[in-house]
């Protein structure tokens, strides 16, 4: 869960300059409030999302883990508090968001010395270096097209995505939505295909089909993995 929240927290503010306008009519804004995943064995996993207007202020899951987001007076995400389990121990720690001179996210710093550093490359890609408490770095390179992450490169592994043209569940979320883009579920549109290509092994793919509501937001997603596993995701909204 912590890694997922790191992904959620990583691109919430990476592309802040492209984020939704906070001055929009928030009372009529469609926001996702709950996501439920159901697996083939019948088990489920739930995430609940809480807002102040259209700013995400908290994510909480069915495992009892959560992260809250704190903004300054200008709407910039500056800090957070995460709660996650390490074995049976519930850990609570602070998260700080650091910006460069161009007001772009340069680092996310966690209480346990984990930190993510970001480099904005001239070709439009973003490099993310993940450092653990021992200083070991794992590097990811994100490629964007039409506000979607279309490729993630990690060493010899390249994962590519294809998208539809409908609304993502997080389409209207202010600022933190930008951070979600490192996790393909939370792009501008909805992923229809994921291809995992490892140069040292065979490739694997997943396909996604959707049912949409009248506003073109997904209410159900069916994922079929390369192994034939089926995962159902349901989306619930504030209106």
Automatic annotation (TrEMBL):
PROSITE patterns registered for this protein in UniProt: PROKAR_LIPOPROTEIN
InterPro entries reported in the protein's UniProt record: YD
UniProt entry tagged with the keyword Ribonucleoprotein: no
Keyword Signal attached: yes
Keywords: Signal
Signal peptide positions on this chain: 1-19
Top-rank taxon, per record: Bacteria
UniProt-recorded name of the protein: YD repeat-containing protein
Organism listed in the record: Flavobacterium profundi
